[in-house]
Design goal:
This protein is 44% helix and 12% strand. The chain is of the alpha/beta class. It has a domain of 127 residues: Alpha/Beta hydrolase fold, catalytic domain (Rossmann fold, 3-Layer(aba) Sandwich). Strand 5, helix 9 and strand 6 form a beta-alpha-beta unit.
C-alpha cells in the first residue's frame, strides 16, 4: 500500500499507532477479498516490519512468517557510538530536522523535475553498480533499474510519508519489534545476507524471548540486498 505499483491513497495519519493500523487494516481487507484463511507471509525490509505487525495482530491467519532483512527490530538504544557522534554534529542535526519534517528522498527527486532521472541514475550506479559477486550491471540492466526506481520515487507521495512515524532518524524503530518478541505466536524464519544493510543481531536478541520455532539464516556473498544479489534464487523460493 502506497509504494511501487500499489495504489497510493492519501496519507493522513499523525501517529505511530495510526500509521501501523493504516497498513495492517488494509492488508486484512485484502486477505478477506482474496478469501485466504491460512497462508505463509513473507516481508522484506519495511515489508518485514508490516508483516510482523500483521502477524502479531492476526496470528490465526499466518501459518509461517518469513522475514527477509526486516526493518524495525533495532531501537535507538542500539545506535553505534559513531552514529551518536554524527547526530551531535550540525550535519546530523540538519538531517534529523529534515527527517522529522518528513522531507523524503522522493520529494527531492520530484523537486528536480526533468533532472530527476539523472539524480536517480547516479544513486543506482553508486549503490547497485556492482553485485556481491563482482559482476557489474550491463547498460540495459542499469537503464531498466534506473527507470524502475525513478518512477517509483516520482509517483504520488503516499507510503513514504509513514516513515517518520515508524522510524526515528537512522531507521531505528519507534516501537521496536524486539519489545514484542514474547508475544510472538507464529513460527518465524529470518533471512539475512552476510553484509545485509539490516542488522541480524536484533533478530538474535528477539529469538531469546520467542516461544515459537524460530530460525535465523545468513546467506553468504550477499552485500546489501538478498533480493538483488540473489534475485534468481530469491524469486524461485
Amino acid at each position: 500500500l502506497g509504494w511501487g505499483g500499489s495504489s497510493r491513497p492519501d496519507f493522513t495519519c499523525k501517529s505511530t499507532e495510526e500509521t501501523e493500523a493504516w497498513f495492517i487494516d488494509s492488508f486484512e481487507e485484502w486477505r478477506k477479498a482474496k478469501n485466504l484463511d491460512k497462508f505463509v507471509l513473507l516481508g522484506h525490509s519495511f515489508g518485514g516490519y508490516v508483516a510482523s505487525k500483521y502477524a502479531l495482530k492476526h496470528p490465526e491467519h499466518v501459518q509461517h512468517l518469513i522475514l527477509v532483512g526486516p526493518a524495525g527490530f533495532s531501537s535507538e538504544s542500539d545506535m553505534s557510538e559513531g552514529f551518536t557522534q554524527f547526530k551531535a554534529t550540525w550535519k546530523g542535526a540538519v538531517l534529523n530536522h529534515l527527517w522529522e519534517s518528513n522531507f523524503t528522498p522522493q520529494k527531492l527527486v520530484r523537486s528536480f523535475g526533468p533532472w530527476g532521472p539523472n539524480l536517480v541514475r547516479r544513486y543506482t550506479s553508486a549503490r547497485f553498480g556492482v553485485h556481491a559477486t563482482g559482476d557489474k550491471l550491463n547498460e540495459d540492466e542499469s537503464a531498466l533499474l534506473t527507470d524502475y526506481i525513478y518512477h517509483k520515487l516520482a509517483a504520488k507521495a503516499s507510503g513514504e510519508l509513514c516513515l517518520k512515524y515508524i522510524f526515528s532518524f537512522g531507521a531505528f524503530a519507534r516501537k521496536p519489534l524486539l519489545h514484542s518478541a514474547s508475544e510472538w505466536k507464529v513460527p518465524t524464519s529470518f533471512i539475512y545476507g552476510y553484509q545485509d544493510w539490516m542488522n541480524y543481531k536484533g533478530a538474535q536478541e528477539a529469538r531469546k524471548s520467542m516461544n515459537v520455532p524460530c530460525e535465523i539464516i545468513r546467506v553468504p556473498q550477499v552485500s546489501l540486498s538478498l533480493s538483488l544479489s540473489r534475485s534468481v534464487c530469491f524469486d524461485c523460493t
